[in-house]
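Notes to self after the call with IL:
- keep both proteins in one doc
- input above output, always
- annotate only the second one for now

Protein 1:
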Amino acid sequence: MRLYFDLGLMALAALWLLLHGGLAHAQSPSPWFEVESLNDGLGPAPDWIDRSTPRATMELLMRAGQRSDTPADAPGQLGHLLNLNDLEPEVQRSAGDRLARDLGTVIARRVIVDWSQIIDRPDGLDALETSNAATAGMPRRSLLLWEIDLDGVPSAIRLERVKPEGADPVWVISARTVRNIAPLYAAYGPTGFEKWLPDALREPAFWRLMWWEVLGVPLLIFLAGLSGWAMSRALRRIGRLASHRVTSAIFRSARIPLLIATVALVLSVGMQTIFVFSGRLNSVLSPLVAAGFVTAALMLIVNVIEVILDEITGFEQMDLTRQQFDETRTRATRIAAVRRLLVIVVFLFGFGIVLSSANLFRTYGFSLLASAGVLTLILGFAARTILANILSSLQIALNQSARIGDRVVYKGALCHVERINFTYVQLHSWDGTRLVVPVNEFTSTTFENWTLKEPEMLRVLKFKLAPSVDIDRLRTCLGEVLDELDPEELDDRDKASVSVTGQDAFGIDVWFMVPCRDPNTSWDVACTARERLVARLARIEEEGTTVFPEVPSADAA
C-alpha cells in the first residue's frame, strides 16, 4: 500500500512539473523591454511627442531632419525619440536633438522610406503578415527598419518598445542604433562642399530634392564624362606607342572598360565626398555606379582573354577554308563556343553582383513583383529573340553542323562561314560580299555544307547539246580538260564521267562530272573546267560537226 502511495505522489509530481513547464513554455515573451527609467536627463516628454506606435516615432524623427517642420518648443525634446540611456544624463538634452536630427538626415539621404512597411500599431503586430511567417500574429518589441552600409558592415536602424517603471511603453530608436549615429552621419551627412553652399541652394526644389541636388547631378555627370573622355584619349595615345602587336591589342581591348571604370569612379568619389545625394537619387545612381564597375571589370577580363586566345590560336592569320585546316576549323568553332559561354557566365555573374550590391528589389519596392516571377517573365519575353539566337549559336558549336571556315550553300549563295557570333552568323560569299544571318534563322533553314564529313565532292557541269553529238569524243574532251587542271585540286579521276541525263525537243542533257578534292576550291575548279570544255566544244563545231542545238532565241525562251 505504501508503495502505491509513493508511486501516486511521484506521478502527481511529474504531472505538475509537466504542466508547469508546458505553461511556462507557452507563455509569450514580454511585449516590451522593461527598464528602470528612460532618458533621465530629458525630463518628461511633452504632449506633442507621440511615441505610441513605430510609425508615429518615425514620422517625428524624419521631421527632425527638416529645419522648418518641427514645433517651436522642439529644442531639447527630440532626444525623447531615442534611447539615450547609454549617455550621461547631463549630456542627454544637448546631444539628443543633434543625434535625432543627424539620424533623420542619414535616413533621408540613404533610404527611400516606404511608410506602408512601418507598422502603425502600439503592439507592433503586422496584420498583413502571412500565416507561414515566424512572427505571424505575435506582438513585436523590436523592429528592424533598414540596414545602412557602414565601412562594409551593415548598420541596423532599429526601433524598440521600451517600458520604464510606472510609465506607458513607448517606441524609440534602440540604444545600439544611437551608438552608430555619429559614424553614419560622418559618412553620409552633408559634406564640406554642401555646407559651403548658400542657403538658397539648400531649399527644397521638387520630388523631395534640394536645389543643389538638381544642379549637382548634371554637373557630376559632366565631370564623369569629361574624365572618361580624357582617359580614352590617354589610352589611345599610349596604344599607339606600343610596338608589339599583342600589347597594342590589349590596349585597344582595355580602352572601353577603363573608360567605363573611370566614369564610375568619378561618380562614386563625387557621391561620397562632394555630393551626398538623398535616398531617391542615391537609389538610382548607386546601382549605376555598381553596374559600371562590374561591367568594366568583366569586359576587361573577357577582352584580355580573347586577345590571349587569338594570339595562342592564330586563327585570324589562317585561311581556314583550305582543306588542310579541317581539324583547325573544328577547334576554332569550339573556342568560339567557349568564348560565348564565358561571356554568358560573366554576364550572369556580374548581373547577380549588381543586384545583390544595389539591392534593387528592396529599394524600389519590387519585392512582390520579383517574388511572383513577373519581372522574370517580362524580361524573358522581351529578350526571347536574343536568347533564341544565343542558344542556336551554342547549338551550332555543339553539333558542328557548320564550322568556321566551312563552305556552305545558303539560299542559293555559295559562301564560307566566317564568324559565328552570339546573335548572327557572318557568311563570306564567293563574290566577296558578306551575308549577316540571324543564328536562329540560319539553324532553322536547310543549307548545304560541302565540307561536312567527307569533303570530296563531284561538281556537275550541265550542257544542252545537239542529239547528234559524239558522246565518246565528249569523254575525251573531259579527260583532256582534267589533265590540264591542278591534280592537287582533283579527286580520284575514276569518278569523272559524262552522262546523258535527258532529252527534249531542243536536244539532249549532258552532265560532265568533275571530281574535286576540296569543296572550298571546287567552285573555281568547276568554272575553269566549264570554260575549257566550252572552248573545245566550240572547236569541234568549227570542224563542221554540230555540237550545240540550233534553236531560235524565241523558242529557247
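Protein 2 (the one to annotate):
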Amino acid sequence: MKRYITLLLMFSLLWIPGVYAAGVPAQQGVITDEAGLLTSAEADAVVAIAAGDQVTVHVLTVESLGNLAAKDYAERVIKDWELATNDILLLISSGDQEIELNVSNKFQASLNTWSSAQGGSTGSAATTKFLDTYFIPYAQDGDFAGGITSVIQSIHSIAGSAAAGAGLPGSAGSGSTGAVAGSGGGSSPAASGNSGFSPLTYAAILGGILLLGAAFLLLSGLKLRKQLSGLQDQLASLMVRANQALELLKPFQGIVQGKTEEMVEGISGRLSSQLVQLAALQNEGRSSQPAVFRLRALKAALGQLTETEATFSSAIGEEEKKIAVVTEADRNVKQRIAELKQDGPELDGQFQNMMKETGFPLQEIAEDLKELTEDTSRADQLELFDPIAAQEILQEAQKQQDQIEQDLADVDLYDDKLDRFSAVLGEARSKISGIIAQNSLQNMKAKPYDRLEQANTAAAAMKAPLAAGDMDEVRRIGAQMDLLLDEALAMTEGQALLRKNNRRDVEAVRSGWSRLKEQRDGLQGRIAEARQRFAESHVASTDELLKEWSTRLREGAAQLPQIETWTSDERGEYDQARSGLDELMRLQEEAGRQFGQVADGLSLLDERLNTVNRIFNGGEGRTEAAWQLLHSRRLAASSHFDVSLLPEYSELELRLSQRPYNLDELESLGRAYDSRITAYEEEARRLVRQQEEAERQAELARLAEQRRRTQARKRMSSGPSSSNRSSGGSSWGGSSSRRSSGGSSWGGGGGKSGRSSGGSKW
C-alpha cells in the first residue's frame, strides 16, 4: 500500500505549477538580494518605499545570469513569481554588470511620455534613458542602494504623474539617497498576465489535494490504531506481572500471623483488584476502538490509555517492592537470629573480663545484655509465623549489640583516662606556670587555675557513672574535662600574646605621634606661606581643620601613660590596655587622613593659580595658531589678533601682579579671557570649513557636468526598439548593449505577454 501512496504523491506533484522552474531564486518579499548588494538597513529602507498607489517594485539581485539573456531571465522571474500587471521587476546582475527593468505595457506608456518630455525616444530606448538617468550614476560609484532607491522613487513619481495628468519628475542625480530595500509586496496569481490555468488543470490540482488529504488521514489513523494495540499488549503484560506477584504470596497465605499477615493480605487484595480492572480495560479496549478516520477520538483514547497504563505499572511496582520485603524477611530473619545467639556468649565473656579487670559492677551494661538476650528470644519465637515483626525486633537488637560493644571498649578507655588524669593535670599546671613566669603575668585578670580545679572536680565525678557502666554520662564528663584543660591553657597563652602585642603597639603609637607632629609642623609652615599668597577666605577652613586635629591628637597623647600603666605586670589590665591602644591607633590613622586633606587643599590652591597662569600665558600662542590657519587658507586679515587689547588681558595682568590672590576673581577673569580666545579659534575653523565645503560643491558640480556630457553622447548612439515590451538600460562599465531589443550597455530586450522589459550594462 505504501508503494501506491508514493506513486499517488508523485503524480499529484506533476500538476503543481512552477515545479520545473529552474535557476530562479525563491521570492523573499519585494527585495530578494541574492548578490548581497544591500545591507540589512538598506534593504529595510527599500522595503518601506517599494509599494506605491499605482505600482509595486520588486527587486532581484543575482551574481550571474548564467547563459541567459537578461530579458529572458526577467521573463522567467515574472512567470515563476506570478507578478501582476501592476508589479514592476528590477533585475540586477552584479557579475554581468547588467540591469533589466520589466514593466507592464500600461506603465511603459507612462515611461514613453516621460522620455518624450525629456527629448528622448520611446520603447526600449525610453527604458534605457530612464536607467541611465536614475541608476547608472549610482552604480558606477558602487552605491547600489542609492541607485535602487532613485529608480523606485522615480517610478512612483512617473506613475503618479500619469494617474493625475500632472508634471513629470526631474532629472538624474535628484533621486533621494535615503533608504533602500522593500517589504514584501506582490499580487495574486490570478492578476498575472502570464500564469493562467485551464479548468482541467484546476480540477487535477484539487483532485490531487483531496487524494493527498485522504492518504494522510488513512496513514495517521492506522498509526494511532497500531499504538493503541501496543498499549493493549502492555496491559496484558501488566496482568501477567500481577499474577506472578500473587503467586509469590501463596506460600505465606494461611500461615503467617500478626504484622506479616496484615501486610500479605493487603498486598493480595490490592493486586486482585488491579487484575479485575485490567481485564475490564482490555475487553473494553479490544471491542470499542474508534474508526480509523476519527483522528481526534483516536488521539484521546491513546492519551487516556497511556495514562492508565502508567498508573497501573507504578501501582504493581509498589506491590512488588512490598512482596520483596516479606520474602527478604522470611529468608534472612532465621540466619540473623542464629548470628545473634552465636555472638551472645562472646559478648558476655567480654563483659565478665571487663568486670574482673576494672572491679566495676557495670550494672547498666548488664541490663543491656539481658535486654538483648530477651529480644533475640522473642524474635526467635516470631520468626516462623511473623517474620516482619521478628525483623523489626532484630534491627533494634543489632543496634543494641553494637552499642554494648562500644560501651565495653569505652570502659577500658575512660578507666585509663582517669588513671592518667593526675599526670595530665600536673603537666597543664606546669605549662601554665611557665607561661606566666616568662611573660610576667602574675597579676593578670584571667584565672586559668580555676579551670584546672573545675577539670579535677569533673574527673572525680566521673568515677561513679563509670563504675555503673553509664557510658553516656561518662562520655559527657570526659568531653567537659578536656574542654576545661584546653581553656586554661588557651587563656594563659592569649594573655601572654595580648601583653606582647600591647608593648609593641605602645611603641608604634609613640612613633606615630612623632611622625604626625612632624607632619603637622610642616603643614603649619605651608599655611603661613599660603596666607601671604592667597586671600584669607581660601586658607581659613584649612587652618581650622589642622587646628582641630592637632587638639585631638594632644588629647589622645595624654592617655598613653594610663595605657602603659594598664599593660604593666603590676596592674595586669591587658584587655583594657588593648581597647585604649586600638582607640589611639584609630585616632592616629584618621588624623593622618585629615592631614592629607589639609595638604591636598593647599596643593589645590597652587593648582588653581597655575591654571589661571596657563590660560593667561597661552592666549597669545592660541590666537597665533588660529591666525596661521586662516593665513594658510588666504582667509586672514593683514594684521594679527592682538590679545593685549582685550580688557580681560589687562585686568588679569594687573591681578596676577598683586598679592594676596583672590582665586575666585582670577578664575572668573580667566574664564572670560579663555572664552574670547575660544570664540576666535572656532570662528577660524568655521571659515575654513565653509571654504572647504564651497570647494567640494564646486568639484561635485564639475563631475555632474562631466557625467551629463557623457550621458548625452551615449543617448546620441542609442535608438528605440519595437517590441510588445519596452526595454532599456544603462551601463556603468561602458560596454554596448548585447540585446536586439535596444538599450544601452546595461542590457536590453523586448517583451511579451503584455509586459515590457529593457536592460543595460555598467
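Annotation: The chain has a mean pLDDT of 84. Strands lie at 31-33, 56-62, 87-93, 98-104, 755-761.
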